[in-house]
Amino acid sequence: MNHVLIVDDEAEIRESLESILREEDYLVTTAATAGEALELLRDAAYDVVLLDIWLPDRDGLDTLTEIRQMESANVPEVVIISGHGTIEAAVRATKLGAYDFLEKPLSLDRTLIVLKNAMKARQMREDNQEFSRQLTKGTVTGNSVPMKALRQQIKLMAPTNGRVLIYGESGAGKELVGRAMHAESLRKDRPFVELNCAAIPEDYIESELFGYRHGAVPGGPTEKRGTFERADGGTLFLDEVGDMSLKTQAKVLRALDEQRFLPVGASHPVHVDVRVIAATNKDLEEEIARGNFREDLFYRLNVIPFFVPPLRDRKEDIPLLVKEFLQQFGAEYGRPHVEMTDDALAALKQYHWPGNVRELRNLVERVLILNPKTQRIERKHLPMLVYRDSARDASKSNGREEFTSLLQAREAYERDYILKKLDEFHGNVSRAAEGLGLERSHLYRKMKALGVSVKE
Questions:
Q1: What is the tens place of the pLDDT at every residue in 234-260?
Q2: What is the C-alpha separation between 25 and 1, in angstroms, rounded?
Q3: CA dist., res. 455 & res. 152, Å (int)
Q4: Weakest-pLDDT range from 316-320, 337-341, 384-388
Q5: Could you give the angle at which helices 406-424 and 440-450 cross, rounded to 10 degrees?
Q6: pTM here?
Q7: Longest dimension (CA), the chain
Q8: Residue 9 half-sphere exposure, CB side, CA atoms within 13 Å?
Q9: Does the pLDDT of residue 390 top 50, yes or no?
Q10: Rounded CA gap, 116 and 275, in Å?
Q11: Does an H or E element contain 152, and which?
């Protein structure tokens, strides 16, 4: 962002510093008093504050203390400047959290060096905070064959810089796969930034992706770093990428090709090094045929395809997922030893889970909240939704399911036959395609349509 706030009661110093820093491509705001500076800091984000130690309404060091006590996401680096510099004042300022101490008259070279280093320190602190938030995320849970195969695929592909396109139903865990890819990549020490393309209104998604400069968005902060810029050196996860408009797709395509972009209202492009992982619950090839998705963007994103199987196809993972969610919410609600009985787990396995893992997670949290004194979750504690599939289960006889249409029966046969061929060739999709007499790409499309997970 390179946004500097100059706080000094001498107009000549403010104007001189502002002129010099603007020539160095910094965005600059000035204030003559501590009160004015604190009000500005509450309304917008700044990277560095150049703060005079002597101010007419408040002591500069007291102002420094108040700045450092602001919410961590908005705390800038503070450089104290003073015309009466002493070792004692410098030591006190450092102890209170100042990045550095400059004496008046200011040396231009030293001021620019300190400012540049303070900017780097602010960015590093922000990156470290983001990285710390990510350490507890990104675990792909499950011992079923599809999930073991998925983890093997992640381990193989994560260390590369190839772009990834993750397919799967809503709630299946596409974001977790993206985080796991990042955690095992060569970029794991850099930020993982996510953006849900379906959750951002069309009028704002461009500024979310690429940011803006000099107040280009009315009513917003003076400037904003977009997700591409915040992910520089790391990974950008674009969730529900199929919901982007064609106009936004064109700009994302150009950013991917050139690894640079022009923020809204900016005059100079920003260069980045970003690995993009995209996810969708749509069939993008169908969207291309309908004219809703750019074919060239699809081929840029679909370098490494992943498929996250729905929970109904890996119900043997439910006990492990339930245990994980009980531990997570048990710790959050002060109940670390809650368990679920085998009878209750069996009931969960009978349910079809249209909302996938997200629905299971929400159910576990709801059961814990509604039964605050229960240490053993039994079948009777579960909501009625887990019994919805009982009628369908009753229609099965001697292991044979009664289908309601010819299409349903054909799809079930095709699914079973493809799975047998995949098992026969030990999960090798290319060899299975040869055995089925299909093109590899045709088999991939068929597998996606039938909900068969990729085991390569």
A1: 999 999 999 999 999 999 999 999 999
A2: 10
A3: 9
A4: 384-388
A5: 130
A6: 0.60
A7: 91
A8: 13
A9: no
A10: 26
A11: helix 145-157
Q: Can you spell out the DSSP letters for 158-205?
A: TTS---EEEE--TTSSHHHHHHHHHHTSTTTTS-EEEEETTTS-HHHH
Structure tokens at 441: 């790409």
Q: What angle do CA 21, 23, 24 make, to 5 degrees?
A: 65
Structure tokens given for 269: 């492009």
Q: What is the spatial distance between Cα 185 and Cα 194, in angstroms, rounded to a whole number?
A: 16
Q: Do 237 and 275 contact (CB within 8 A), yes or no?
A: no
Cis peptide before 191 (omega within 30 of 0): no
Say if residues 210 and 271 touch (Cβ distance below 8 Å): no
Average pLDDT for the chain: 85
Structure confidence at residue 6 (pLDDT): 94
Percentage of residues in the chain having pLDDT higher than 70: 87
Digit-coded pLDDT (tens) for 149-183: 999 999 999 999 999 999 999 999 999 999 999 98
- Of residues 122 and 400, more confidence is placed in 122
CA–CA separation, 329 vs 335, rounded Å? Answer: 8
Q: Looking at the predicted structure, is the pLDDT value of residue 44 above 90? A: no
The CA distance from 419 to 446, in Å, is 12
- Which residue has better confidence, 21 or 417? 21
d(CA 183, CA 137): 9
- Torsion angle of C-alpha atoms 253, 259, 262, 264, degrees rounded to 10: 60
Element (H, E) at 30: strand 27-31
| Closest CA relative to residue 165, chosen from 248, 285, 310 | 285
Residue among 118, 127, 126 at smallest CA distance from 51: 118
According to DSSP, residue 380 is labeled G
CA distance 346 to 440: 38
Residue type, 182: H
- Cα distances from 63 to residues 69, 87, 441, 451, in angstroms, run 10, 19, 63, 59
Please report which confidence band the pLDDT of residue 120 belongs to, taking 50, 70 and 90 as the band edges: confident
Cα 363 to Cα 122, 220, 329, 340, 368: the distances in Å are 40, 38, 11, 13, 9
Half-sphere exposure of 34 (CA within 13 A, CB side): 17
